[in-house]
Amino acid sequence: MTGTGTTLVTGATGTTGSRTTAALTAAGHRVRAASRGATPLPGAEPVRFDWYDPAGHGAALAGAERLYLVPPVGDPDPAAVMLPFLRRARAAGVRRVVLLGSSAIPEGGPGVGAVHRALPGLFDEWAVLRPSWFMQNFTGTHAHARSIRDEGAILTATDTGRIGFVDAEDIAAVAARALTDDRVPDTDLVLTGPETLSHDDVATVVTQVTGRPVTHRRLTYEQLRDRLAASVPLEFAVMLAGMDRAIARGAEDRTTDTVQRLTGRPPHSFRTVAERELTGSR
Does pLDDT of 281 surpass 50? Predict the structure, then answer.
């Protein structure tokens, strides 16, 4: 997988962007790591990038052939800024794009679904990664991780619904292959871990790994919507709470073999990730 041109990674300091950057540089690829602060990352060229400041987009795209595309966080209509950027990327010579989407949002759906729908018409080489919920939501800076630390609880409207939680390391491994393999996926790829878990199961594993009691506190759709609306736009809060309601009805109770097929190894379990990322926080 060596010998490809420069890959521009947007959101390069984020959960999947940082890991994708690390996977690409470790394999010997040239990477331009784009972030608002042009943060240096080992082996990558830093560049300042802000979705809402097009004046810097040209410098970020200069000489790039491939693009890992992370949507702007919290924007209910990311297509408004992403599609003009993608048209500019095509004109600048980018030929392959891998978009980070969501298992909950199909092509043409709300939010990033509109970008998914437009991608095949813009690029001959493309893939849309549609991961399930990140395992790192419980170990990093996500609201769930904060509520675990602050309240000893995970708050959702998922009831007993099950999810094929996926490790961000596995997402990055698939992203690196999709960006650099000779054969481009030209499709969307649903990514999950090896099993489905309820939030009660997650709370049990975190409790066992850390030795600190953690429970799953069940909210109604309305309670979760209003809680989220205190920190994000109402439209986005409605969408997120709606995803939890869909999970409660079984929408994410599935696993796929995508990680195994594209990387040649099985996906990591949640217990493995919890032991890797939480044991140092006791």
Answer: no
